[in-house]
User: Fold Imidazoleglycerol-phosphate dehydratase from Chloropicon primus.
Amino acid sequence: MQGVRARAGATAVACGAGARASRPGRRAATSCRGADRHRDYTEGVRPRERRSGLVQASTEIPSVSANEGEGEGLEARVAFVERKTKETSVFVKLDIDGTGKCDCDSGVPFLDHMLDQIASHGLFDIEVKAEGDTWIDDHHTTEDIALAFGQCLSRALGTRAGIYRFGDFCAPLDEALIHVVMDLSGRPSCECDLEIPSERIGTFQTEMVPHFFESLSNTSGMTLHIRQLNGKNSHHIVEATFKAFARALRQACSYDPRRKGMVASSKGVLTQQ
Ligand SMILES: [Mn+2]
Assistant:
């Protein structure tokens, strides 16, 4: 059987909104708003959900004082995005500091199973409702959910001040062993090196796995490396990839108490302004 060797570089997304990445420079204009300290280390968080304007990305630079009193002026790291094109209608909501709840009805059953892995192992709350042109195939729906998820992540992270920024996790699933390394650098880049033996898992085309991650990387401003260290079973390989991604993302998003709310960058910014 012909293996799918997917080495994903930057791929221009097919159509639509201005918030999508453009090919040159592989940089997406994502927005950054709001505060960003981890709820676990604070009290009195004031939840506020940010609504995405899908087309315009805000260039507003938040004025967040890292030394504000603990629990004052902080916001929940929650965002949602609604995205409509002629191909799909997608709603994605993400709470970074969630409890692992997944309420996903993407119309692509295997993708729901994988989103459940992200929520469960990343301890994120994820809601996805999508209606897409799945009578053609799962491509547009999978891609657009990934784009919206990346946008949600970027918005929920705000300035990215105080977070660890880097994440690194290696997840086994039986014989499969997948290593995921990421940097929430603001720089979209995805190297996905998976050898998935079968072309489909159920009805899901396995070539959509690297495409999912490169789309997510583009709109979230994430540098992402995925390496398959071992694996024979396609379901195991893909599921271990999503588990490792979830744990690495949880690590990268977590608040580093030693950072004291400062941005983990010698340059001073982690956003794409
Ligand atoms: Mn499974």
Observations:
- The pocket of manganese (II) ion is lined by residues 113, 235, 239 (CB under 6 Å).
- The CA atoms of residues 191 and 225 lie 5 Å apart.
- The first strand starts at residue 4 and ends at 7.
- Residues 234-253 form the longest helix (20 residues).
